[in-house]
Structure formats: C-alpha cells, structure tokens
Write a structure and sequence with these properties.
Layout: H1 2-10, H2 15-19, H3 24-29, H4 39-62, H5 68-90, H6 94-116, H7 120-125, H8 127-146
Helix pairs in contact: 1-4, 5-6, 6-8
Amino acid sequence: MKFIIYILILLPWFLSSILFPFDQNFYQSLTFPNFTPPNFVFIIVWPILYILIALSFYILIKKNLINRSILFYYLLNYILNQSFSLFFFYLNNLALTLYTTILLLVSTIFLLISIKKVNKCSFYLLIPYLLWNIFGTILYLAVFFMN
C-alpha cells in the first residue's frame, strides 16, 4: 500500500511531458548559451528530481508531518513546475516562462525552508532540486536575454 501511495505522488510530476508536447521547431530556433547541457541531461535529471520530490513528500506523509505551509509550497511548486512546460514548450511564450522560472525558484526556497523545520531527511532530498532550479534559472535568464 505504501508503494502505491508513493507512485500516486510521483506520477503527476510527469504530466506536463504528456499534456504539453515539445515544439521542436521553436526550440531549435532559439539561441542558447554555451553552458547549456545536451538534451539528454534533462531527460536523465528530471526523472531523478521528480523521484526525490515524491520521496520527500512521501516521508512527510508517512510521518504525519504535512502542515498547511508545506502543502501550500508543494502545490505551488508543482503548479509552477508544470507551468514552465506549458509556457515554454507548448505556448512558446518566453516572458511567461521567465516569470514562472523566477517564481519556481522562490517557491522552491520557501518549500525547503518550511520542510527543514519538520524533517531533515525530506529537506536534504530536495537540495538537488534547489540546485537544479538555481542552474535552470540562470540558464533560462540567458536564453531569455539572448532571444
């Protein structure tokens, strides 16, 4: 039963890749900075991060440590994370993607702050996500200003 709950927590994170198809022509028309990782890196990193996010949330549920603040930041983070794919890959809107990227980073910081108070393990599981969001924000700022 616990494994089923974990899978149910994990699955929604992959929703955007199904709902918002990748616009190859738009993507190839963009100018990217020289520190942009190859596409396969994103394909590897995001599933790992989604697993860590779901595991962090699962630990909090299992230990009955979810409070309103944590739940709010998880949901906000989820919505912003999914919105990135909608705005960038599907709608090709660079400005909305910029706002979303910045808000996603801020919400990730607040999520970690709220979790650190209740469970260190869940907190540490999200450190790679925070680091990736910092890198992603820098990368996207470069993409935005180059295009």
